[in-house]
Amino acid sequence: MIKHYLQTAFRWQRGRQGTGYDKMLLLTARWPLPFDSYLIRYPEGSEIPPHTDPVQAGRHYRLNIVLKSPRSGGDFVCATPIYASRRIKLFRPDACEHSVTRVVGGSRYVLSLGWVLKA
User: Fold this and answer.
1) Any alpha helices (H) in the chain, and if so which ranges?
2) Residues 6+ away with beta carbon under 8 Å from 11
């Protein structure tokens, strides 16, 4: 776990959706509360299609803080967020389908914190 963290932390990696966004692992732990934190970069033209992020057990929560917005697009879409304002989004990615619209005119940066609570 520590070796993998040291090999991947603070390095840009392609996002798993294959739609042009990049992510940088900042910090992660499995105990006492499994969590991860990423800086996510959405360059112009990137987007994320509607999807959910299932977990093996428990309830997955994610807090996204928009650090930089593009001139247009890059909107987070989630039908039932727990809390949403212009820059702060708290939601259940395992339970709520979510997406990001195509980024137009600039880039979007998000600090994303996720954790899983036992069922």
Assistant:
1) 2-8
2) 24, 25
The domain made up of 2-117 has a fold known as Jelly Rolls (2.60.120)
Q: How far apart are CA 16 and CA 23, in angstroms?
A: 9
Q: Is 105 left (phi over 0), alpha (psi -120 to 50) or beta?
A: left
Full-model pTM: 0.91
Domain ranges of the chain: 2-117
Q: What is the pLDDT of residues 23-38, one digit of tens each?
A: 999 999 988 888 999 9
What is the rounded radius of gyration, in angstroms, for the C-alpha atoms of the chain?
Answer: 14
Q: How far apart, in Å, are the Cα atoms of 21 and each of 32, 60, 116?
A: 30, 21, 23
